[in-house]
Write a structure and sequence with these properties.
disordered N terminus, binds zinc ion, alpha+beta, 36% helix, 171 residues
Length: 171
């Protein structure tokens, strides 16, 4: 039984149709068919000829699907990337106002939160007006104040292409 160098998997003892190897040159993971008596295989990425006898089998699987899954896990780990399922796809479901409110949470003070809201609304909507701002403000703990528009006008990166319509230069 092989030890798993990635430390992620518990080696299965019954899986022996497919193996996952990692290219010694470029670290790309690859599925090999263990039922075929092949001596070498070529790395899809860098073309390195890999001698199977010398390769460590990082994962064994009975199905190609399972081997593919293992490759995804290994590649992600090697690249230091997040696993796809951990990625935040929440963003796509948020409307521009929710998105602006959410991103504004990262702002340190009111001015910064306003700048973030301006950038997000410009990015998502092209431009924005008072009613757009109110929708966002209602979702945050920021006050909808009378001078809110004045405050926005006074921000360096906010400009007003038409009266009452705003854009951020950073959007
Ligand atoms: Zn390679």
């Amino acid at each position: 039984m092989h030890a798993c160098s990635t430390g992620v998997f518990t080696m299965k003892e019954d899986g022996d149709k497919y193996g996952v190897i990692v290219c010694s040159d470029c670290r790309k993971a690859k599925i090999i068919d263990l039922t075929k008596d092949r001596k070498t295989t070529e790395c899809h990425r860098c073309g390195q000829r890999l001698i199977l006898k010398k390769m460590k089998i990082h994962y064994r699987a009975d199905s190609r699907e399972e081997a593919s899954w293992a490759i995804g896990q290994i590649n992600a780990r090697m690249n230091g990337e997040k696993m796809p399922e951990e990625m935040n796809d929440e963003k796509e479901e948020l409307d521009p106002y929710q998105l602006a409110a959410k991103e504004a949470e990262h702002g340190d003070d009111e001015r910064e939160r306003m700048l973030i809201i301006g950038r997000v609304l410009t990015r998502e909507l092209g431009s924005f007006d008072r009613s757009d701002l109110e929708k966002v403000f209602k979702m945050t703990d920021m006050d909808v104040e009378k001078d809110m528009i004045e405050k926005f006008r006074n921000l360096d990166e906010i400009y007003e292409p038409e009266h009452g319509t705003f854009k951020s230069v950073e959007g």
